[in-house]
């Protein structure tokens, strides 16, 4: 194999502070300064992208660090000079970082205007939030196609769903908070669904991967607002999982990337972002195994989250506190 991939201890300290990384890997055999990428995306999705970038940029190493979306915002704000590129599914937090001056411009990038913000923040995937079910646990019950179907199914079968439903803990997950606020803006059905899940003793998670793992084992029957790209990948190799995009409207987020305004390897960082956007446009699944960036089709009922200032509305401290209180009242009924 041409490229060396080194798995480094997950709990190793980095440049003066300690962080429990979900994953930490180094790609390449070059002797130049490492390009450090802070990301919420599983390494399995980005390994072929990084390897293709290294093939086009001989002599460069890439250090890829994975953690949760809320942690990314906290870590990067505290030490922006430690990282060159930041990738996250939490669009609102990324836009706020950009608005607060943490992102450097990349000029002359051929990219749709609707998928970027001031030449500093770039969207490169379109990924829906999904309902995911354990097929065997559902027995002969009908598969729900909408949020209202899901509400009625749980109400009519409480013995099956009690203690076996899940969603994000919006207090811990940046992506979970984004999905929840956008869902609530789109329909009052969201709050009815949260109340019913609360009565079922909903399990709350930080990450889609953990929900999917517990669905596969049968510990969970269903999970709501799971990241669709992760769920579909697992469903390809697992007969246990059923992935549903709500027929009323799926919430679709765009994964985004920025270059740190204090990047130590600014040229390498800009080169990586340009290469990433080029691979997205080329649409070769063997190199770019993430969903492509697609503009909303007016004929398809979905709600794509736009890159605009309204995205930061629920990041206001008072609005966030009010939303979390309402969410807790609905779903955290057994605390």
What gyration radius follows from the Cα positions, in whole Å? Answer: 20 Å
Strand content: 15-25%
| Name of the CATH class of the largest domain | Alpha Beta
Helix/strand/pairing class, anyone?
Answer: alpha/beta
The CATH homologous superfamily of the largest domain is called Periplasmic binding protein-like II
Order of helices and strands: EEEHEHEHEEEEHHEHHEHEHEEEHEH
Number of strands: 16
Task: Please tally the helical runs, counting DSSP H or I stretches of 4 or more residues.
Answer: 11
Name the overall outline: globular
Largest sheet: 9 strands, mixed
CATH topology of the largest domain: D-Maltodextrin-Binding Protein, domain 2
CATH architecture of the largest domain: 3-Layer(aba) Sandwich
> Ranges with pLDDT <50 over ≥5 residues?
1-16
Mean pLDDT: 90
Please describe the structure with a list of short key phrases separated by commas or semicolons:
7-stranded mixed beta sheet, D-Maltodextrin-Binding Protein, domain 2, globular, 335 residues, disordered N terminus, alpha/beta
Description of the molecule:
With 335 residues, the chain is an alpha/beta fold. The protein folds into two domains: 5-125 and 254-282, Periplasmic binding protein-like II (D-Maltodextrin-Binding Protein, domain 2, 3-Layer(aba) Sandwich); 127-252 and 306-331, Periplasmic binding protein-like II (D-Maltodextrin-Binding Protein, domain 2). It is 36% helix and 20% strand. The chain has eleven helices and 16 strands. It has helices at 43-56, 69-78, 91-99, 147-156, 158-161, 174-186, 189-199, 208-217, 228-235, 266-282, 317-331, and strands at 5-7, 23-27, 34-39, 61-66, 85-88, 103-104, 116-117, 121-123, 127-134, 165-168, 203-205, 222-227, 241-244, 251-253, 256-260, 303-304. The strands form two sheets. Strands 1, 2, 3, 4, 5, 6, 7, 8 and 15 form a nine-stranded mixed β-sheet that branches. The longest helix is centred in the C-terminal third of the chain and has 17 residues, at 266-282. It is globular, with a radius of gyration of 20 Å. Residues 1-16 have low confidence and may be disordered.
